[in-house]
Amino acid sequence: MKTAVVTDSTAYIPKDLRDQLNIHMIPLSVIFGNEAYEEEVEITTEQFFEEVKHKPLPTTSQPSVGQFLELFEKLAKDYDAVISIHLSSGISGTYQGAVSAGEMVEGVKVYPFDSEISCRIQGFYVMEAAKMAAEGKGPDEIMARLAEMKNTVKAYFMVDDLSHLQRGGRLSGAAALIGGLLQVKPVLHFVDKMIVPFEKIRTRKKAMKRISDLLGEAVSDGSAYEAVIIQAQREEEAKEWKAELEAQYPNVEFTISYFGPVIGTHLGEGAMGLGWVKK
User: Fold this and answer.
1) Backbone phi and psi for residue 102, each to the nearest 5 degrees, phi listed first
2) What is the number of domains present in the chain?
3) pLDDT at residue 176 above 50?
4) Residue 172 has pLDDT above 50, yes or no
5) Does 223 share its domain with 272?
């Protein structure tokens, strides 16, 4: 049985890696005024952060059901099943678009998967699914593995400026919290598919230390873990943090990724995150 793996652009898996693992990507868009740009296709992360310096903050847009349907129909010619893995349904309608298109397409069975998270942590699921599909594993086995991974996937992140999340409506319960949070660097995480504050912390350095300690608690069982540092225009800081974390946690394999245009719109420059999963 041939299984295709689809994800959206917010997994931020570089094109060479997508090509290598045969991952099909459907892009979300950022919209500056009347101009829409598909992230990872028509606008790079560097171009995006340059644009927002001298333009009003863009809005973001999910792929249409029609775009999903077109992709699924194309895949139906060569595959028996499609596993479609997307960012949390609590912050975007992208997953629901895959569900709707999956019910409409003929000739292939679509298995939508809500990662309940985003960015390269979503990418953990995508790459695992792609590797299993390449080994000839069927969709039921792959979906079972993805569900199992959810038990050990965790991610925490901090933003330099909460106003982006507040304005975009992506921070749950923001109204009650925002006044007290603007002067701090809150550590955020996903709960029930939504972004919520985890802890209020006064400085960036302390916030990153707290996230590092949370990783330490998770990996203290000595098992092998995979982790990713995610940054928004803070690559040097991410490299330094990676070196520190590697020295502290030898049982964890670290990579560095980025917050691209769509997620960057809501988090802003300077955001930093860390996510992990048990191998």
Assistant:
1) -65, -30
2) 2
3) no
4) yes
5) yes
Per the structure, the complete domain to which residue 184 belongs is given by: 154-278
What whole-number distance in Å separates Cα of residue 167 and Cα of residue 224? 39
Tokens of 209: 């230390």
Q: What CATH number does residue 200 fall under?
A: 3.30.1180.10
**For the segment 133-152, what is each residue's pLDDT rounded down to a tens digit?**
999 999 999 999 999 999 99
Whether 193 and 120 map to the same domain: the answer is no
**Mean pLDDT value across residues 25-43:** 96
DSSP 8-class letter at 11: G
Helix, coil or strand: residue 88:
coil
In angstroms, rounded to a whole number, what is the distance separating the alpha carbons of residues 254 and 244? 11
134 and 251 part of one domain: no
Q: How many CB atoms lie within 10 A of CB 108?
A: 20
Give phi and psi for 187, each to the nearest 5: -85, 130
34 within some domain:
no
pTM of the model: 0.92
CA distance 261 to 203: 25
| Residue 96 shares a structural domain with residue 204 | no
CA distance 146 to 96: 18
Which band of pLDDT confidence, cut at 50, 70 and 90, is reported for residue 42?
very high
pLDDT at 166: 59
